Amino acid sequence: MSNGSETDHSTAPEAASAPSLPPDVLIIVPVRNTVLFPGTVFPLVLGREPSIAAAQQAMREERQVGVLMQRDPERAEPSAIDLHRTGTVANILRYVNAPDGTHHVVLQGEQRFRVIEFVRERPFFAARVQRIEEPEIHTPEIEARFLHLRQQALEALQLLPQVPQELVGAVQGATSPSALSDLVAAYLDIGPDEKQEILETIDLAARMDRVSRFLAQRLEVLRLTQEIGRQTQAAFDERQREAILREQMAAIQRQLGEGDGRSQEVAELNDAIAQANMPPEVEEVARKELRRYERMPEAAAEAGMVRTYLDWLIELPWALPDEKPIDIAAARRVLDDDHYDLEKIKARIIEYLAVRKLAPQGKAPILCFVGPPGVGKTSLGQSIARAMERPFVRVSLGGVHDEAEIRGHRRTYIGALPGNIIQAIRKAKARNCVMMLDEIDKMGRGIQGDPSAAMLEVLDPEQNATFRDNYLGVPFDLSHVAFITTANMLDTIPGPLRDRMEIISLAGYTEEEKLQIARRYLVGRQLRANGLRPDQAEIDDEALRRIIQGYTREAGVRNLEREIGTALRHAAVRVAEGSAERVHITADDVPAILGPPRFENEVAMRTSVPGVATGLAWTPVGGDILFIEATRTPGKGNLILTGQLGEVMRESAQAALSLVKTRAGSLGIDEAIFAASDIHIHVPAGATPKDGPSAGVAMVIALVSLLTSRTVRSDTAMTGEISLRGLVLPVGGIKEKVVAAAGAGLTRVMLPARNRRDYAEIPDDARNRLEFIWLERVDDAVAAALEENPAGVPAAAE
Fold this sequence. Notes:
Structural class: alpha/beta
Helix content: 40-55%
Largest sheet: 5 strands, mixed, barrel
Strand content: 15-25%
């Protein structure tokens, strides 16, 4: 060998020799993902035929080889163009044929070279090369770089585990800047391409800078790795120490006879916390409380409180379940199956579901169903839950007057519990349930706080993602809960709370709608409730109509269902005692079962005399008819008001009397009557408080009827506020009032002209049964409401 190194000739190849090469031609060994540097020793496994042939030829001729790295390591048979042009001249220190057939060589790098031209590619590569001499430069700049690079290399070696001392000695004993930079580059943990760049950098200062830069990056990684390792070891040591202490504590408890029950309980709680999918901050609180619980004696009073708290945290559904896509067609079928009519309400619910389907992460509105009792508000919420295929849970807010019932009690109090919202979430076992907040208009307010203020955070999509219950003490995400609220009236709902909800009004049902609901839903439900089959009992339509007209007077159908249940229980008795196999209830059977009718049509009777007008009123349970009665007695012009009237309604009566006085001449009324008579206005059902301005028109008509002795048409009802100029002003509750008029058997209604916008909300059945008269002025009402003068009756009788 040219370097005089010893060669193991016992393993030298015995292949046929190739023609000898000129002295200035170097045998080339191509390698993949490997860079050999001068001054370093490198083992190499030869697998390709050209490489094996090259090594064998070099051994035979005792020549050096040139090591060049491929540009593309994936090329199995590279050509000359696929090799880098700068490599390292190397001596073959050892060549071994392994028993498995592989060829191993140990190379020692000696000097850089640059390829001038390739002279052969088969059977191995050979090239005419230019050897690159390494000048020894000893300038202050080079010396400074040398010292800095050696310091970096030694620091890196200290950070590495199990470093050979020979390598440390080689770095410490290096005297040549070029040799040190090549040694560090050879063992540096960088990619082959970066190493090839260093090999091709001939300028010593630039090469040392490049090696120093790469080494600085690796040093930073090694420092961070060592720091992470120290932290991990510290955490592991802490856990190991804790485990040993726990084992010792368990042994002490066994010696004291306390048993292993507490340890097993703590282990079970620990596993339950791990499986609860809590957010990190909640899990941290839970584990802190578990450590407190573990240290407490079993007899401690606080131990039970901490255990209950942990149970609540574990059982709450922290993880969001997979949501099924909403099927709009199926949702339509569900709503149609569960509810008759209510087309506009159903259309709005379908819109709500469509938006939830297209934007599941969006902030859905809070729907508020407002209407009288028994019109199906709660069942609409259940239908929405069925359509969305989510759990349904109901929270009753009626009578809630303590803020803690919404937000929960603090755990410092004995018997503390979470609020109704968190309790309902736990009951539903799903964080995306449909939650109905029932009777939100009936929340009270006491010295314990205002629960409606706590509901502001619950129903605000911008805030409820971090709802904090006082008992839990950690945030809980309510943003995926579909909230639906119900109310009978809006007046008692605070403005800020009402502003967070979208109001959907449900009016009372007409007689025809009640008949259809009874036939489709109520009869079948009561048959099942009373243990009857359809072939054992039946109620015909005329019997249902008679129950509706004579035994119920409500906006909804709750009492109607009770009366149907009473009738079917009568049938159940007959079937149970064997007196009949099948009972058919007709209209003639209803009085015998339910007794005499409880309600009768009083309109014709009450308006058969002058001074009685039929008004329309809105109540929290729906619309109703209201009779205004007026009479006069000798007196001094006083106005007497009775019937438990509110302040606004009393003012309406005074305004009505003033308006009649100013128009007495045009109405044919003797003005002397007012000075010589006291006028008494009474609104029957005196035990019921009444208020509002909408009876103004009815009061004017009642006074004009009284003072002109003209009766009011018995088929007509009216509503509207009046002004002293004789204008008829709009009022609210038109839909409910018109439904009540149709249910009372009236055929004409007089409404303010400015309420025409409410006409579209009136059910079709009521529209078809009623004639609508739109009033601009009081004169229109007088002309439409009063009968013609009876023959021989004076206009103003004393």
